[in-house]
Amino acid sequence: MSDVITKLRVFCINKTDRYSAHDRIKSIGGMHSDARRWKITQTQAIEFIERGTKFYVSVGGETVDVIVATSPYGNKYIKTRNDGEQPNNLLSLPECP
Question: Global pTM?
Answer without folding.
Answer: 0.82
